[in-house]
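ESCALATION

Customer reports they have been waiting on this structure for their group meeting. Please prioritize. Original submission:
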Amino acid sequence: MTKKPPSQATDPAGDPQAPAIRTTGLQKIYKGFFGRHPVVALQGLNLEIRRGEVFGLLGPNGSGKTTTVKLLLGLIHPTSGSAEVLGRKPGNVLTNQYIGFLPEESYLYQFLNADETLDFYGRLFRIPRRERKRRIHELIDLVGLGHARRRAVKGYSKGMGRRIGLAQALINDPELLFLDEPTSGLDPIGTREIKNLILELKRRGKTVLMCSHLLADVEDVCDRIAILQKGVLKVESAVSDLLTVKDVTQIRVRQLAPDALEHLKSILAEHNAELVEVSNPHSTLEKLFLRIVGAAPGGTRRD
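Update from on-call: job pushed to the front of the queue and completed.
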């Protein structure tokens, strides 16, 4: 009996009731060499990412983001604690069939073109030839590389390299995507297109874990975020909850006369003003991030 390729596998991606990602007391300590002290890269991380959401993992350089992603991918092992990815331990061969990964730097074969690159990765996943060709055509159009599909990757700009890297991460139609700086090197139009693509992946039920230094991008697409500082989880919540200024109320009205401002509540009806919105104003993710990181010990950065 012929073995089915991953794209046709009947075994679901782990327990469908389990979170996409769960960590419990996850810790990673790198041993010191030549008399150096050990480095605590991650301390007791408790995190749960639900299936079908876009989750942002934020933090300054050295905060533990990359270590966390490597632990979740099974590339390194924790010093203590545990993690589950799609209901299984990180690095599980079956689980890996349902994961896509875009690293910060895409390491691609420079003499292959876009079609050949995606065909190579599609073969690694044992995707049947007809299905592989269909996906390659669809993904190249999706990431906007139709005009350069026959050009060798070595001739790509950085932005084009991000696009083909993202297409490579999607070749196996993954359930869970790890995206590290997905909009790096893209112009504003390209950035908007990638953000729209991430939102479309969410609409299709995909789970996305996104690491980025571009806070506006995270604010636009993420449902929830976590901010790490020196390996410690400082905050985790829905973006809307974090950015709402709860102790301030703003009222937006239409056709309100200037002399009504002093007695707004009592004279709205009197002036026939339309009450458009009563809500809490929002801060920005950049201000929240800098406030949290700056308030932490050693939060001041030196670049």
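Sent to customer with the following note: Residues 1-11, 298-303 have pLDDT under 50 and may be disordered.
Escalation resolved.
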